[in-house]
Amino acid sequence: MKIFKAAIFDMDGLLLDSELLALKAFEAGCVQFGLGDQTDLFMRFVGTNAEKGNAEMKQALDGIIDVDEFIKTWRGIYADWIQHNPVPLKVGVKDVLTHLNSINTPIAVATSTRTEPAEKKLKMAGIFDHFDFIVGGDQVSHSKPNPDIFLKAAEILACDPSSCIAFEDSPNGVRSAVAAGMTVVQIPDMIEPDETLLELGHIVLDEISDVLTFDFQKHLNPAT
């Protein structure tokens, strides 16, 4: 990965195994409000910020339940869980971060989560010190899939986006990083890429540790 001048990581579902916890909290809220299976609704806002997610829920559930109370309930369940327990790391995360640190590659996080809670989650998980900067969703005007947050991270790292490698798990995140003009690696978490997403031409790997052996030079220059 020495060919890249900077590396930018999503957080939830990529570094931290947090999306499943969020889904379980969402499902617990659905039970409390007498809703049926709303997994498809949850999947629509994976990778976006809270405002965009709340808008999706209001559009889908308005007139059925008190949406504001529902949002408050399930997000409260999730917040309580992560307040008292470190979110587990994804397999291979520390190996990849340690490798990037060893070759002096600047690293940032670009997460839809607000900066303060994102920093807390990373500290509790024991990986905060691996990163040079944390760019939270509250630092940009437009959430993923818009490219703003990846462009902001590249700007802070003083690197041209085309020289950066971005790591994502969700379709919304992939679209954001591709739109920013970066080399993009997707490690799917809860949502597998469909044919439309694969047409973007990004790299898809099974686990984040696979990047340590992937031939990026060959991918970027297939004729050589």
Structure explained in plain terms:
The protein is α/β, with parallel strands linked by helices. The protein has 2 domains: 143 residues, Rossmann fold; 67 residues. 44% of the residues lie in helices and 10% in strands. It is built from 10 helices and 6 strands. Strand 2, helix 6 and strand 3 form a beta-alpha-beta unit. It is globular, with a radius of gyration of 17 Å. The two termini are 17 Å apart.
Backbone structural class? alpha/beta
Q: For the largest beta sheet, what order do the strands appear in spatially?
A: 3-2-1-4-5-6
Query: What is the CATH architecture assignment of the largest domain?
Result: 3-Layer(aba) Sandwich
Largest sheet geometry: 6 strands, parallel
Average of the residue pLDDT scores: 94
- Rg calculated over all Cα atoms: 17 Å
Taking the alpha carbons of the first and last residues, their distance comes to 17 Å
Describe the global form.
Answer: globular
Sheet-strand content, in percent, reads: 5-15%
> CATH topology of the largest domain, which one?
Rossmann fold
Helical residue percent band? 40-55%
What is the name of the CATH superfamily of the largest domain?
HAD superfamily/HAD-like
Number of strands: 6
List the secondary-structure elements in sequence, H or E: EHHHHHEHEHEHEHEH
Query: What top-tier CATH class of the largest domain fits best?
Result: Alpha Beta
Assembly level:
single chain
Spans where pLDDT lies below 50 across 5 or more residues: none
Number of domains: 2
